[in-house]
Amino acid sequence: MKKLLPIVMVCLALAGKAQNYASDSARIEEHFRKTDHILNILREFRFQAYIQPEWQRADTAGAAGVQGGNFPAAANNRFILRRGRVKLSWQHEIVNKHGDSIKVGEFAFQFDASEKGFNALKDFYGRLIDPWTGWFSIQAGITVRPFGWESPASPMTYESPEFSRMNQTIMPNECELGETFIIESPRTFKPVYLRLDAGIVNGEGIGNTGTGQSSISTGAYQSAKDFVGRLMVGKVFKLNEDTKIKLAASGSYYYGSVLQTTNNVYEVVKNAETGLDTFKNVTVGTSDTAGRGKTDYHRQYAGAHLEVDFDYKLTASASATTAIRGEYIGGTQPGQASSSTVPLGAGTSSPVADLYIRKFQGYMVTITQGFHYKAGKQQMHSDLTFKVDYYDPNTQTGGTALTKGAGFSTTDLAYTTISGGFTITPVPYFKLMLWYDHPVNENSGIPGWGADYKKDNVLTLRTQFSLDSWWFDKKSTTNSNLISRTY
């Protein structure tokens, strides 16, 4: 019995340690389970940030233009921080009854800042997607206007430093406040990419300075709301293992109004005596503090865009992309004497500028030749881009018929801008862009704006530094690069 006692003691000790090991193992397993749950939640969040410091040189001091705004009166070159944006977004996915992972929720917050300070919110919205099919959703808050291709495009991935003169004029800020109903094909739908946006918005934009006011536009000043809609379709055709053709097209429509808040409204009419076009006061009602006699004037656009991308292999370690894109927009724009931009209120105050109603049209064509190759183990990208954009703010008359005596000004001049540049992305977080713009105004009857064209060419050298948390946990939620070109 004495000999068995040590053996029994050892067995009891080992059994106790085994129980401790089992308990420790359970605790470790529970710890890893909780950690994995936390990581899965964190993976639903995405952090993005980028800044665009740049140096620009114009032909002359004080040159006017749309490449980051007019130059200072005494300077023909400058350093500016064109954009500095930070975005935090979240999206939630579930597995439906078919075993497919579909996105059912989305939230985003983005703001913009520069050397001038905090500029404006760019995104602040939520989106709820039906969990049964993944096709239907409702989105509300501040987001980009779903109109055309260029206006909703991200400046982070855009081929040129700035949007066209037309888009900057008719939609001076790409963001709006409202609600949008969206029908979008989920990733699991392979035949074709489809997206329909139909939104109701204030129409005043976000962060625009009201005409004649010093504050920032932060709300609607009129009861009427604007409609903005777009239908997009895209398809990728795989010819072989190394060659793909991507097609994308869209049609857009904007229908809104601008309330008459001053006593004068001007439209282009034919002078019965001279037979020439002229701006004439056609005011129907008279604005007063009681709101009597006010009239809504149409703000109406229609546009279409088409894009073709060819992706093909060059060598075992290099490939290329040839992209051709065109966009056309035309319509009616209520503007001002000194600007084609829609006069806006400041806060809830009404705009104070007389209305000038103009018919406009414009287009842009972009051709980009991209190269993708490896330098050692590092994937690199470079682009050569050629762009032509045209904007005629007043299609009812032009050329030498544009005279001050008929009420016209430099606001009514048509511009053709020929531009091009080179971009290189050696690493994901850095991009270098060299770009040159050559704008040419039409020959008019306005003194100083005839054959003696203004010297307002601009050379831009831009550096872009960016960060995206998804680089560390790759998670693609787009059907392809048909909406936003990415590498």
Can you describe this structure?
9% of the residues lie in helices and 49% in strands. It has 487 residues and is mainly β. It has one domain: Porin, CATH 2.40.160.10. A 16-stranded antiparallel beta barrel has the order 1-2-3-4-5-6-7-8-9-12-13-14-15-16-17-18. Strand 6 and strand 7 form a beta hairpin. The longest helix has 39 residues, at 4-42. The radius of gyration is 29 Å and the shape is globular. The model is unreliable at 209-217 and 476-485 (pLDDT under 50).
Number of DSSP strand runs: 18
Instruction: Estimate the mean pLDDT confidence.
Output: 83
Number of helices: 2
Sequence of secondary-structure elements? HEEEEEHEEEEEEEEEEEEE
What is the structural class? mainly beta
Give start-end ranges of low-pLDDT stretches.
Answer: 209-217, 476-485
Largest sheet, if any?
Answer: 16 strands, antiparallel, barrel
Strand content: over 45%
Q: CATH superfamily, please? A: Porin
Helix content: under 10%
Q: Characterize the quaternary organization of these chains.
A: single chain
CATH topology: Porin
For the largest beta sheet, what order do the strands appear in spatially? 1-2-3-4-5-6-7-8-9-12-13-14-15-16-17-18
Report the CATH C-level class. Mainly Beta
Shape: globular
What integer value in Å does the Rg equal?
29 Å
State the domain count: 1
Report how far the terminal alpha carbons are from each other. Answer: 79 Å
